[in-house]
Amino acid sequence: MRERKITIWNLAVMNLRKKTCQTIATLAVITIFAASVFGGGILFLSLENGLNSVKERLGADIILVPEDTEEEMKAILLQGNTSYFYMSKDMIDKVQKIEGIDEITYQYFFASAGSACCDMPVEIIGFEPDTDFVIQPWIQEKLKEKIADDSVVVGGDIQVSNGHSIRIYNQEYEVAAKMDKTGTGMDQTVFVNMNTLKHMRQAATKQGFRFLSGEEEDLDKQISAVMIRVSDKQNISRIAMEIKQKTKNVEVMISEKIVSSVSDSLSFIATVVKYVLFVLIAMVLAALSVIYILQMGQRKKEIALLRMMGMSKSKIGRMLVTEAMLQGILGAALGIMIASVFVFPFNVYIGDMIGQPYVQPGSLTTLLYILGTIVLVTGASLISVSFSVAQIYKKETYQTMREGE
User: Fold this and answer.
1) Which tens digits make up the pLDDT trace of 297-343?
2) Is residue 296 a part of any domain in this protein?
3) What is the tally of structural domains in the chain?
4) Are residues 242 and 270 in the same domain?
5) Does one domain contain both 25 and 130?
6) Final residue before a domain boundary, out of 223, 248, 273
7) Residues 222, 289 within the same domain
């Protein structure tokens, strides 16, 4: 029978299996470290993606809403809150003649009654497809050529149960298109044209729902928000000031300021995450160094025997480094898997809890971050064990044997 050759790799694996308690304790520290690094990194990247999404997807340079509803509008855009407020549709006529305005459209917020009315709680927004420049450019998958009556556009977080329709107020509506994820309230929103919105209200009335937003005929006279795109090279602040002067009882919101408020919040969160990760890395390096040094104290006799059997210091050092590398890779893999269980399936809940736009990174970015986490965690393990390895080169075999008695 052919004898199995003993290698550094085999010795390292056997040592880890033999010293079960030590291995588990070390793995626990490395796993917690890896889970924190990976989970915190995905959180930061998702918030950064959310900020970029807000910059790109708001679409309008200026948004007009009724007076004292600016915070509600931000909650709809950024957090997916359901709400409704209205002003006269005449507002469009008052502002569209202002010089420097390139495009103008409107939306009507028809807050649903939550899970009592629909497959899931959603915000229902009516819009005008012919003038819209906010919603349709970000459609990821167009299932029909035209957003016709009795069809809807759904946000990226809305799951269509049977693949092609959604139930609202006990009526089935065909899904004409699905939007790309934005990390904003648009992801939990259903968009419909105004004719479809009237049909929804009629269906809701038949189901016994009552609304505080006026009578059905008010749908033709009221709107919730006016979206304005300013012509190139025009001063947005100047046009916003002119709108304020020509209108009453209206909040004039500048998109850049909305983005700026999100950016400030993100900067604070990013700073906290960076400091926490820095402190965590320092603590883990210190903890692992202590663990490996303590383990080395328990293995002095073992190492002395290996030296007496003819194993060189360099081979013993390589054995210890291999053990640390295996623990680092395995701990990193376990930490990433544990963090993934909490981070990826609950991304919508995390975004709602943080209250900021939240878009998880794509597959390639995630894969690169997984590899980066493995390299970082394994590197930390190797750096920590280096202090123990250094002790081997400082002592002779006889001295090590005496200390291990």
Assistant:
1) 667 677 767 667 767 777 777 888 888 889 999 999 999 999 999 88
2) yes
3) 2
4) no
5) no
6) 248
7) no
The stretch 4-32 carries a mean pLDDT of: 80
Q: Report whether 77 contacts 191 (CB < 8 A).
A: no
The conformation of residue 134, written as its DSSP 8-state character, comes to S
What is the tally of helices (H) and strands (E) in the chain?
12, 12
What's the average model confidence in pLDDT over 34-58?
Answer: 79
User: According to the model, what pLDDT value does residue 371 have?
Assistant: 94
DSSP 8-class letter at 319: H
Domain boundary among 179, 214, 248: 248
Spatial separation of the C-alpha atoms in residues 134 and 153, rounded to whole Å: 13
In a domain, 253, yes or no: no
Please give the radius of gyration of the chain, using alpha carbons only, rounded to the nearest integer. 31
Query: Sorting pLDDT into bands at 50, 70 and 90, what band is 397?
Result: very low
Integer distance in angstroms from the first to the last C-alpha of the chain?
37
Q: What is the pTM of this model?
A: 0.63
Give me the helix-helix angle, 363-394 and 313-343, nearest 10°: 150
Q: Give me the DSSP letters along 233-284.
A: T--HHHHHHHHHHH-SSEEEEEHHHHHHHHHHHHHHHHHHHHHHHHHHHHHH
Domain that holds residue 172: 68-248
Handedness of CA 358, 121, 220, 195 (dihedral sign): positive
